[in-house]
Amino acid sequence: DPVKLESGQEAFTINNSISNSFFGELAINLPKKGDNTGSKKLYLKKWRGIVGVGYERFKYMINQQNNSYDFNTIDIDGYSYNRLINIFEFEEKQEINLINGYVGVEPMFSLFNIDVLISARMGRVFSKEGTYTNYANSIEYSGYYEDLFGVTIIDSYDDFGSVSDVRGSGDLNFKSDIYFWKLQAVAQIKIGEKTSIMLGGSYTNYYEGSLFEHTTELLNERYQDDGLENDMNSIINSPINLSFKYPSIILGLSKKI
User: Is 153 helix (H, G, I), strand (E, B) or coil?
Assistant: First the structure.
């Protein structure tokens, strides 16, 4: 799966995780070429520099059976209290679109008259957008006040009730700088004088970890005169860390200019 949970995230599950990508690149032959001084079946032909642009899309769903947390807030009369939230049967769909640029170097080998290229690339995301839609079967709200010495006053415990069929949607908040590295191995099989089919695989690692910023609470929990405001923000605002590290299959065309 292209999207995974970091260790210690057993409360969450990732389902229906898929990704696809497209890229175009320019390969520039470097001055020093290899030569066929060793085995005629395998030898280094040349080194190339790579400059490329890519597009990647991720779609996946995050599920959590139960989610509980608390935070300090202010009531409508201006008094501080501790708010308790219990969320039941939560799910969130996320879709992410990234456009990136990268550079790299690769040696080209000849193996049984087939060109084999092995490369290492590093890049940065230049354009990013993502959306989420989520749902919770029910949410329970409660809270309590403390006295002047920080001791909880049990009698002041308030049950604000519960709401059902809670939904939210919006845009995901990304980190300002997102970097990645990629390892790639491809075989080029000639189908014409200047055209080859590319077959191979790669492994990509967005090494900053999660792509997202935690900017707010999961819920818009503001207690108002007319009741509770129940719209949910993204699950990325709760204690969850996703990793984007994944292998890919490469299929494409190479054209000499």
Answer: coil
CB 62 within 8 A of CB 94: yes
Rounded CA separation 138/151 (Å): 30
Q: In angstroms, rounded to a whole number, what is the distance separating the alpha carbons of residues 157 and 210?
A: 37
Report the chain's C-alpha Rg in angstroms. Answer: 26
Contacts of 147 (CB under 8 A, 6+ apart): 153
pTM of the model: 0.79
Higher pLDDT, 61 or 70: 61
The strand pairing partners of 15, in sequence order, are 61
Distance of CA 73 to the CA centre of its chain: 31
Quote the strand ranges of the chain, DSSP E: 3-5, 12-33, 42-74, 80-111, 114-144, 158-171, 179-190, 195-205, 223-224, 227-228, 242-255
- Over residues 71-117, the pLDDT tens digits come to 777 777 777 778 788 889 999 999 999 999 999 999 988 887 788 99
Q: Tokens 């001791």 sit at which residue?
A: 151
How many angstroms separate the CA atoms of 252 and 9, rounded?
A: 37
Structure tokens at 255: 């054209």
Element (H, E) at 70: strand 42-74
- For 160, the token pair is 């604000």
Q: Within a 10 A sphere around the Cβ of 123, how many other Cβ atoms?
A: 20
SS3 236: helix
198: left (phi over 0), alpha (psi -120 to 50) or beta: beta
